[in-house]
Automatic annotation (TrEMBL):
Compartment(s): Membrane
Residues annotated as transmembrane: 143-172, 237-256, 263-280
Record's keyword annotation contains Transmembrane: yes
Main localization category: membrane
A single cellular component GO annotation: peroxisomal membrane
Organism: Hericium alpestre
Protein name: TECPR1-like DysF domain-containing protein
């Protein structure tokens, strides 16, 4: 570093190094063609046609293990922070959801109490399901339909429903209805037990009901959640929905006084019973199968994708690339799996219909774990859309199931829309599904 004799430099000053001399740039090597990378199609788990009942979980033996089951489940799934968040101090009213602080012991105690006391709710749920699904016979279900029709034409009788429920409970538990009860009217029957005993059959049945209810609620949530973004201004369709809702509201408002409410509620209330009737359950699938619902679904998805295209997409040439998803039935786990594919057969994801052009065992090939396509120079994937499953399955004459799967034998031959019973005995069942995605010609990628 050069020193200046005519400048007084303080002792506490830190010298600053000068920039190194510029090094002449080396000769640039020619760049290889960039690879176009996209994510794999989102293959959602579907209902297995071969599975008749869910696999029974192994029940631990011993009352102690069963009694400690809620604590083990909660302790293994909950990872509480060192300082859990407390209730909002700005709110002077303590809500039910924030009444007690978060604690594993409290959750365990309340969960045990909940299991022991929620039994009547599931009992009522089973009785309603039996009546609605015609499982108690046509006489019982018809009786409830008649009661509902009577209430529709005399709606003021709804005020007497609490009295009718209380009378029904008292009549159902009357001593005369029990053959083992005494004829002495002064004999008082013992009260019913308040809680289900831990480890008993009733207690385990309640846990099974909670398990199935959580699964059903999650399935319903997953089915409805894709519609939520359209109502939260996360998509361009929210404004259209708002305008359509407002316009229809103004159109229906003058017609409200002329709508007959009693016949309307009568039809709406009896419609679920008609749909769940055994005859309807046999005929509705045949009627729905004859309707072009898959083609309508494909048309709606394509119209939605076209609406999201940008101007440079419309001004360029569009093509489609295809991909096939391959799976094999695993007898040991009773599930469809890509890991069950044999080493000498097709791989999980293939580009060609022959099922062989794709990812090899060492990771090379046209389709990798990130789905790297060697597209021609200048071509790119449309950024506003993703992979779409082919539910119509026009590429095969056999057709497909509702999720687009085409089932074949162990040698990937003899395609059908559903697995055959003969394939179960041979132990080899395979299936594949067709995926498509659009690409466009991008001039900026050629330069």
């Amino acid at each position: 570093m050069a020193a200046f004799n005519y400048v007084a430099i303080p002792s506490y000053a830190t010298p600053v190094e000068s920039d190194p001399p510029a090094v002449p740039s080396e000769r640039k090597e020619p760049r290889s063609a960039p690879k176009v990378v996209t994510s794999l199609p989102h293959s959602q788990p579907t209902q297995d046609p071969l599975r008749t009942s869910p696999t029974n979980a192994t029940t631990p033996s011993g009352k102690s293990a069963l009694g400690n089951l809620p604590g083990l489940l909660l302790a293994s799934t909950l990872q509480l922070p060192a300082n859990p968040p407390t209730a909002n101090l700005r709110s002077s009213v303590s809500l039910l959801s924030t009444r007690d602080p978060l604690s594993v012991p409290t959750i365990t105690v309340n969960f045990r109490r909940f299991i022991a006391k929620i039994g009547p709710v599931f009992w009522l749920q089973d009785r309603i399901e039996e009546v609605l699904m015609w499982r108690k016979g046509w006489k019982v279900t018809t009786l409830w339909m008649t009661v509902y029709a009577f209430l529709c034409y005399f709606p003021r009788l709804i005020l007497l429903i609490p009295h009718a429920i209380l009378l029904g409970v008292l009549v159902a538990g009357h001593p005369s209805r029990r053959p083992e009860s005494s004829d002495d009217p002064d004999v008082i029957l013992p009260p019913p037990k308040a809680n289900a005993r831990e480890g008993s059959a009733e207690w385990l049945a309640i846990i099974q009901a909670i398990q199935n209810l959580m699964g059903a609620f999650s399935d319903g949530y997953d089915a409805v959640f894709p519609l939520v973004p359209h109502l939260t201004y996360s998509t361009p369709y929210t404004t259209r929905i708002l305008i359509l809702t407002f316009v229809t509201f103004l159109l229906v408002l003058p017609l409200v006084p002329f709508i007959p409410l009693r016949p309307l509620f009568l039809v709406l209330g009896l419609l679920p019973f008609i749909i769940t009737h055994p005859v309807s359950q046999r005929t509705l699938p045949v009627i729905l199968a004859a309707l072009p619902l898959r083609r309508l679904h494909t048309w709606v998805v394509r119209a939605t994708d076209d609406d999201r295209l940008k101007d440079h997409h419309w001004q360029s040439q569009l093509r489609e690339v295809e991909l096939f998803e391959n799976e094999r039935w695993n007898i040991e786990t009773a599930q469809w799996s890509k890991a069950a594919l044999k080493a000498s057969e097709r791989v999980p994801w293939t580009r060609g219909r022959d099922g062989w052009s794709g990812l090899s065992t060492d990771g090379s090939g046209d389709v990798s774990s990130n789905l790297t396509f060697a597209l021609e120079p200048g071509w790119a994937f449309v950024e506003t859309e993703d992979w779409r499953a082919d539910f119509e399955a026009l590429w095969t004459e056999s057709g497909s199931d509702d999720d687009g799967w085409v089932y074949t034998n162990d040698a990937w031959l003899d395609p059908h829309s559903a697995p055959l019973e003969d394939w179960r005995t041979t132990g080899g069942i395979t299936r594949r599904r067709h995926w498509t995605r659009r690409i466009y010609f991008n001039l900026s990628r050629t330069t």
